Amino acid sequence: MKRFALILMLLASPLAAVEPDEILSDPVLEQRARELSKGLRCLVCRNESIDESNAPLAKDLRLLVRDRLVQGDTDEEAVNFIVERYGEYVLLNPTRGGANWLLWGAGPLMLLFAGGAGIVYVRGRSRANAPQDDGLSADEAAALKDILEK
């Protein structure tokens, strides 16, 4: 039973989609390529790294990363090359500079705005005058009495 549970746990974990023909002969370069691939988004799949994706474009990106590393690029140079080619969308964790600060700050700002709007609404409701119950006028009381007597 323990073996069965172990097999299920291994099958449930995400597997790398790297094919044997992609693997570099230099284990140091291959490890660097794997680390870089984990931080790059597959442009076909949603929120899946190119290391996990089986899409043909993900394979092309994995090969491109490995090619750049073999050519002598540093990790940063290889990632910058891919970002220049495909845009910042390819990064699973986008930078916080440039126009992205608006995206990073939009969530907390909206939360503060909604909280402030809620407080203003609740305070306004508590200060509003309660409707006055003046009771029935003489004509309304007479009309009600006629209805009830019928």
Molecular structure report:
- This protein has 150 residues and is an all-alpha fold.
- It folds into 2 domains: 13-90, Cytochrome C biogenesis protein (Helicase, Ruva Protein, domain 3, Orthogonal Bundle), CATH 1.10.8; 96-126.
- It contains 6 helices and no strands.
- It has helices spanning 2-12, 27-38, 56-70, 75-86, 100-127, 138-149.
- α2 packs across α3 and α3 crosses α4.
Question: What order do the helices and strands come in, and which of them pair?
Answer:
Layout: H1 2-12, H2 27-38, H3 56-70, H4 75-86, H5 100-127, H6 138-149
Helix pairs in contact: 2-3, 3-4
Give the CATH architecture of the largest domain: Orthogonal Bundle
Query: In total, how many beta strands?
Result: 0
Radius of gyration: 32 Å
- Calculate the terminal CA-CA distance, rounded to whole Å: 82 Å
Mean pLDDT: 84
Number of domains: 2
| Structural class computed from helices and strand pairing | mainly alpha
Q: What's this model, at a glance?
A:
With 150 residues, the chain is mainly alpha-helical. It contains six helices and no strands. It folds into two domains: 78 residues, Cytochrome C biogenesis protein (Helicase, Ruva Protein, domain 3); 31 residues.
